[in-house]
């Protein structure tokens, strides 16, 4: 996989980074959420940090939100800004373009300060953070939970797939399913809530294989995770996915496939929540259908993600479902795309 990593690095080396102020988060927005079954508001923040230590996943373009020169003092300034924007939301989701728990991005003393400052917000109930599995440490997590108490901490792990071959050859994730299992065990033991991201349609899978992989992955984590967040692949700039998409060797998933996974995933997970936020939905770089039905289906997926009522995504119809069904029946694995990609390495 040395060649693949080298090729991804070469693609990334051409990237133009976004202009940033180190004292401000890369992005901030508000969205609807559900807390303990009730509608709630969430404040979502992407902090500007040095970025992901791994930075080699085939679909990930978040590195363009990072800034090599950012200091811990800058990050605390960003948190001051977040607090000034706070309007009584129940949840604050703190994303970085990598892992909150990675001390190369945010050292432990700064992690503690951030959690301490946010915990002082009276109406806040949950602080949600993300991490790769290798940065999850029981002692440190317990310390963060002690600070956040009586509010709650949610940790999200980007598993993407429970299949080690897909993790390695399609995503280049840099860890195995067993690494996720161990970190998930630690997160649960610490008392934090666990959310798991599953990726719909990594490279080199047919539409049918992609649906099957998500469903198999959900089955394997159903007793571990509190929430599943389904992420349909979007074509980020300066990624391997974009390289193959531009050559006609990749199409983002159909929205019908999203619905299929949500429906089956809900059946498997029972009371546990499955949700789906679609980046670039309805556009050619994101999950899309024929263009005529996309808006209607995206709205239905959003409603289902909030209240878990399957009736929103059942009995939806558009003619393009027949084309999707044909693709499920007829599409064969495109070995050509894989060969062309490896030959260019
Ligand atoms: S998906 Fe996550 S782990 Fe992979 S490169 Fe992006 S930030 Fe890093
Ligand atoms: Zn349609």
Mean pLDDT across residues: 95
Q: Can you tell me the CATH architecture? A: Alpha-Beta Barrel
Structural class: alpha/beta
The neighbouring-strand order within the major sheet is 1-2-3-4-5-6-7-8
As residue ranges, the low-confidence spans are none
As a whole number of angstroms, the C-alpha radius of gyration is 20 Å
Quickly count the helices: 12
Each distinct ligand: iron/sulfur cluster, zinc ion
| The level-1 CATH class | Alpha Beta
- Taking the alpha carbons of the first and last residues, their distance comes to 10 Å
Q: How many domains?
A: 1
Strand content: 15-25%
Order of SSEs? HEEHEHEHEHHEHEHHEHHH
- Please, what is the CATH homologous superfamily? Aldolase class I
Q: How would a crystallographer describe the biggest sheet?
A: 8 strands, mixed
What gross morphology would you assign? globular
What is the CATH topology?
TIM Barrel
Secondary structure tally: strands: 8
| Fraction of residues in helix | 40-55%
